[in-house]
Amino acid sequence: MKLEKSSEPVSRRHPPKTFKITIRKARDIDMEDLFQFLHAKGKMTNNCRMAIMAMNIIINHKISTEHPIIRNSFYTSQEAKPLSGGIEAWQRYYQTARPTRGKMMINIDVSTTAFYEGGPLIRMIAKILGFRSLNDLCKELSDKDRQKVEKRIKNLKISDNHSPENQQKFKIRKLTQTSASHTMVDVDGSNINVKTYFQNMYNRRLLYPFLPCIVVRENIYLPIEVCDVIPEQRYMQILDTRLADEMTNFARQNPNIRANKIKAGLNILDYKKNEYLKQFGMEISNDMAVVNARILPTPTIQYHQSSRENRVQPNGGSWNLRNKKVINGATLSSWSVLAFLNYKSLSDQAIKFFVRELIITCQDTGMNISEMEPLICRENPIGNTEESLKKAWLKAGNKARGKPQLVLCILPNTGSNLYAEIKRVGDTVIGVATQCIQSIHTINPKKQYCANVCLKMNVKLGGENSFLIPEHIQFVEDEPTILMGADITKLSPGDSNGPSYAALCGSVNTKAFALRYATSIRVQTGSTEIITDLANMVKELLKTFYQTCGRKPKKILFYRNGVSESQFIKVLECELTAIKEACQNLEANYKPTITFVVVQKRHHTRFFPIQGADRTGNCFPGTVVDMNITHPFEFDFYLLSHAGLHGTSRPTHYHVLYDQNGFDANKLQMLCYNLCHTSVRCTRAVSLVPPVYYAHLAAARARLHSSECSKSGAITFGVVKQELQKVMYFI
């Protein structure tokens, strides 16, 4: 590196550039179309969209001059909470103008976002390394620590502080391999180290010459201690497990606290003193909207007739399996236990005790466990997982002299890599059901935990857990009806160019008591929200339905997850056409009635009860809102079907885009709410209708079926074995 001995201010060496800006009027904004739309007298037009976009620009302008802002959200460091590793949690306030029945409303919500802490970079690095103070930074960094620091601070914007009159801003490229004492630079033909250069040039004696330097440009190095982190920078990397847990705990707020934070955001926005709103003749109330809601009646759930309590009506959105037997218990005659822990961490006696408790629970719940002492295998969690599973599978088969049905895997922690590989091998290589549990749950196993594991095992082996009494699911009971749920998930979240997994789940029984589902999976490229091969996927599930019960569905209720409002029309046009095409490809005159419903969880609508609340302060399960804040004239509603365990519950938004089945609001709301009580994974009402919930799980599982070639880097995608496609392997 060659350095010039120049102390001239940056402004003299880099004269300011002059820009000429021309502002030209593009068009007038016509509000009439929007007024017509709000009063159900016209459709959504480009004029409507332009008017709404203008409103969002106006309401966001003033706040954008005072706080960091991205799209419709602004961030504030008020009440920021320090996290580990030099990261802090900031409040994020979201605001957007939304059309509702007869008027425009502002949707405001609060969430949490990670930011880098501003200030000395040396302090941040000490925190990244887990040191309590700068005094602990007393020696050179190991290669591992240097890589850890470099990964965290790469692309971070910094300013130097060694020359206050000539302060500059940079972006971190990387760290040097050597310390400041050993990183050499060329100054007027002489080689000296960075430490000596700063001593001679700036009379700055480095306190940490043993630390590496920051590389900001080609051959331009800065000691860490002369760098300051520029404030207000978002942390854009994926949060590690520790940071994610800290963020979740900070962001989890009960309804009262969340409502107060939203009100604090309203005070920051201060609409009444916003001169830009006044100039455009806009008035916005600082009060939350009060809307009417209904609480739907709770359905009755049926278990096996031999149960002591064969019917149950949930209380507060949950129930338990005590004195109840599943409607169709599977038989387990060949299985093994695979522990990815050594004997010291988890003894054979502890495993046997857990297995005994699990078997007792399964039998009490109606399963038939004929193999009471499964073989226990042990393998290294960082070894060859595929070989480990194959060994456990073969040992189970040899002992039972039959095809193994299940491998129960005990994991040392929540490590996602080991879990992913177990599922990839079990689903796509061997073709055997796997049930993973964390080792912590094997110590003093709780009955409720064993019961939840039992429910999953039963459906993976082809059993059925419970059903709704016919009068509570009349739409399915009246005629042969297939419920379908569709979802898309990316292989790598945020990667718009990477592959996506599309999953379609469909019920395979004609009666209410048999809500079993089959799946169809596709891998597709690009960032489209459209499921490109939906016609063939629908055809597969219609065939499975017919093969299972010998009848063709006369009705299709299709739930579609993960669609943004801007894509409603396109998704409906493409996917409704695909559903109809699938039916006609099976039989020219086959035309079942179709209802197409979009299901949305990613929204910012929250409910805060005024009168009556559950123990967490949330609205009661079954709360439904279908007026005031909904679409000006289309068929949509918000349903809070589950009981919140932590924080503020998020209602699910159901929007009917097409309906040939003659649903009225009450009929569809009741059906959706009742279906939320049929999840096979637990004894709780869930927040999404199961067809979509299962599609989400199946798509997420499909992500785990990919593997990367170590030589070429090519990604290959495994196909689920045929024998598992007939059962709910993804649960």
Automatic annotation (TrEMBL):
GO molecular function, one term: RNA binding
Annotated source species: Rhizophagus irregularis
Protein name listed in UniProt: Piwi-domain-containing protein
InterPro entries: ArgoL1, ArgoL2, Argonaute_Mid_dom, Argonaute_N, PAZ_dom, PAZ_dom_sf, Piwi, Piwi_ago-like
Protein family: Belongs to the argonaute family.
Domain Piwi: 406-707
Domain of life: Eukaryota
Domain PAZ stretches: 120-231
